[in-house]
Design a protein that fits this description.
This protein is mainly alpha-helical. It has 3 domains: 104 residues, Four Helix Bundle (Hemerythrin (Met), subunit A) (Up-down Bundle), CATH 1.20.120; 52 residues; 83 residues, Winged helix-like DNA-binding domain superfamily/Winged helix DNA-binding domain (Arc Repressor Mutant, subunit A). Helices cover 67% and strands 0% of the residues. The chain contains 14 helices and no strands. Helix 3 crosses helix 5. It is flat. The model has no long low-confidence stretch (mean pLDDT 77).
Length: 286
């Protein structure tokens, strides 16, 4: 299948596939549901392939390969055929339209930009309707500011104005490489990525954090020395490991009930807090 355009042989095959009357459609759906008859499911799907192609043409304005849209739509069509319930008295084309559209829209959102443009249902509706609404508003005999246009779109779709502004900026601007020159027209070796603010702490903050961490580690070990062996074992297993050991597991190990383990843990924590209040008042208060 060509990615640039829809394969003509596929179009011819889709157009030659006969329409299904309601009774035949129900019979095939029952065969698939009751006997897992793949041939029946495929008959239903093939008869509605023209629906996939027509929907792919509707989404061609997003600049993605039509062949890829058809492939994604066909996946949605097969999913619809697999889930279709003939007893609901709904024609398959009505049911399948939602699945085909959803498959294509998900594909567009995943591939239209390297930056995710929308995840919630409201954001998806904004992504797929913003340009259409902007065009319709522009056709009116009114001289509206950009903000006024955004306000009308927000009201029409029931979304936040800020969301409309951000989405419009995303759609209007192509993705930019972080390795592009930092200043247009200059070849100074600097790239856009060099201008990004680092989220890492400054060197003096890193040193301060390292010293504070070592100090806290020393204080904690001094406080743990105030506990007896069983208390240290419980605190270490329950509070100082990545995967906490359960009360029941510790009870089996120490030969006591899990309620007794809980009581010892609570008492040990109080002892630690009291010890830290003497060794490092600021740490105990935190």
């Amino acid at each position: 299948m060509s990615n640039a355009t829809i394969d003509r042989s596929l179009v011819r095959h889709a157009m030659r596939a006969p329409y299904l009357e309601r009774e035949e459609e129900q019979t095939l759906a029952n065969r698939w549901r009751d006997r897992a008859d793949n041939a029946a499911r495929n008959r239903i799907a093939d008869a509605h392939m023209r629906l996939v192609i027509s929907m792919a043409i509707r989404f061609k304005g997003f600049g993605l390969p039509a062949g890829d849209l058809v492939q994604e739509g066909y996946v949605g069509l097969l999913e619809a055929a697999a889930r279709f319930e003939p007893d609901r008295n709904v024609r398959f084309s009505t049911y399948a339209s939602w699945w085909i559209r959803a498959a294509m829209q998900d594909f567009i959102l995943r591939n239209w930009s390297i930056v995710r443009s929308g995840t919630s249902s409201a954001q998806k509706a904004l992504f797929f309707n913003l340009r259409r609404l902007r065009s319709r508003i522009a056709q009116g005999d009114r001289d509206l500011t950009n903000r006024a246009v955004h306000e009308e779109i927000a009201a029409a779709l029931g979304v936040n104005l800020k969301d409309v502004e951000r989405m419009d900026a995303r759609i209007s601007s192509p993705d930019a490489s972080l390795h592009a020159p930092a200043t247009a027209g200059e070849d100074n070796g600097r790239e856009q990525i060099d201008l990004l603010e680092s989220e890492e702490p400054l060197p003096d903050e890193q040193v301060t954090g390292l010293i504070d961490g070592e100090r806290r580690h020393r204080w904690l070990h001094q406080a743990l020395d105030r506990l007896n062996r069983r208390e240290r074992r419980i605190i270490h297993a329950r509070r100082l490991t990545e995967e906490s050991v359960t009360l029941e597991e510790l009870g089996q190990e120490l030969g006591i009930s899990k309620e007794r383990v809980r009581q010892i843990e609570s008492r040990a924590l109080e002892k630690l807090k009291a010890a830290l209040s003497v060794i490092a008042p600021g740490m105990a208060a935190a």
